[in-house]
Design goal:
5 strands, alpha+beta
């Protein structure tokens, strides 16, 4: 499954030189994953409160290729696949037009919201991911 989400670079996302600060890219990737979940009917609050599950990043591999700057319009592309029984794999990239600025591989684990122990993704949810 693929998902695209646009984001504009604001002053708060940049360093003193007007270039996007390296941790801002990680926030952009996180927001895109959250908006993907919302687009298929799952808010983070609903998952925690109603279904008793939360997600956590267990692995992040990120490559910074080109800088983004203040006021740039970016597009975050996320390719999602279910991993093991309690995980999801994301290939994500941040683009400005046709230029790829960042690429990342993220593994996210599903946890029980109370115990924070790994928990299998519900079958219905796994189907919604396809």
């Amino acid at each position: 499954m693929s998902f695209e989400w646009p984001v504009r670079v604001y002053y708060e996302d940049t360093d003193a030189g007007g270039v996007v600060y390296h941790t801002s890219y990680i926030r952009f990737l996180e927001r895109a994953r959250t908006e993907w979940l919302r687009s298929i009917g799952y808010s983070q609050a609903r998952l925690a409160n109603d279904m008793g599950l939360v997600f956590t990043v267990v692995s992040l591999d990120i490559k910074y290729l080109l800088p983004a700057r203040l006021d740039d319009m970016l597009l975050i592309r996320s390719d999602i696949e279910a991993g093991g029984g309690a995980s999801m794999n994301f290939d994500q990239a941040i683009h400005r037009g046709e230029q790829q600025l960042v690429r990342g591989k993220v593994i996210v684990a599903c946890l029980d919201a109370t115990t924070f122990k790994p928990r299998r993704l519900p079958a219905a949810m796994r189907e919604d991911f396809n």
